[in-house]
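W.,

You were right to be curious about this one. When I first looked at the sequence I had no strong expectations either way, so I just let the prediction run and decided to look at it fresh. Below is the sequence, 181 residues in total, followed by the output.
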Amino acid sequence: MTQIDLYKGAPSPFWTFSLAVYGRKGVPPACLMLQDEAGVDVNVLLFSLYLGSKGRSLSVDDVRAMVDTIEPWRRDVVVVLRTARRALKEPPSPFEGPAVEALRKAAKAAELEAERIQQEMLFVSFPLESTGRAAADAAEACKGNVEAYRLLLGATFDGPAVATLIEAVAATLSASRGEHA
């Protein structure tokens, strides 16, 4: 089993990429839509985009391996924390007030940490050099990787949401090269 602490205790380049992409305009609602309406695991989606941005093209089998690796953690930890956080957003009466709000914030922090751990596991379990195949064009690899994930799920992805993500990746890459997006 791969240890997640292998990346020298610092955030992986994937986590840094995710924060940069997720911080772009329109990305959080696009991810939420794909998560809630198409069953997307946002971490798998972001990892697919990260690999695409590095010129790696994924097959459906590559994405399946990723999903299979993280599914127990996602199902038993991330989703449970997310469900609790969402329930605490509008708690039943009389469970209201500052103590419940503090608990919701703690659940949110725990959910974010669980997602970070999931991302680190993806990063160490699927090394860039040996995951997928080399692609000539990063933008096309990103689009193809999203399509491979969609095919695996057998879902329909909202076109504007996917376009928002692809544009956010392009802007993030441009910014990292010092270009104006």
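Here's what jumped out at me. Residues 27 and 165 are 6 Å apart (CA to CA). And, maybe more interesting for your project: The first helix runs from residue 13 to 22.

Coffee later to discuss?

I.
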